[in-house]
Amino acid sequence: MSTWECQECAQENEADDQVCVACDEPRPKESNPRYQGYKVGSIVETAAIPKTKLTEIKVDIGEAEPVNIVTNAKVKAGMRVVVAIVGSTIMDNGEETVIKKTNVGGRCSAGMLCNGPMLGWVGGDASAPAQVPESFALGDQPPSSRPRLK
After folding, report:
1. What predicted TM-score, i.e. pTM, was given to this entire model?
2. How far is CA 75 from CA 51, 64, 82, 113, in A?
3. What is the pLDDT of the chain when averaged over all its residues?
């Protein structure tokens, strides 16, 4: 697991720490071009779409309105997940795909839940959405490696 160094006091911190354990200075925001358009979000609402295996969800990504997404992943309200928003590019099975607003199962979907392999994380399950601890702020870019859930 990687660590980060506080810019204020040079304390080495664990990868999961969002503030310095020595001085409470916030962790510097990661800016990784690979994750341009990827945001940490919290699922605030879920609704099964009748006669399908799809679920319509609303995800708070720290903006004025939650993002509406249709997924076949097993999800529940309160999960902190990684979302690829409209306009972002994902790698799926070695191919680049630009996320577009689309109609899925008769519902509008304006993004996509990311799984661990899409993010380049080791040990992630391709059939499950990538999750991060609540210590990651809504709207932030995801970390470059899979964080430990507490």
Report:
1. 0.77
2. 18, 22, 12, 10
3. 89
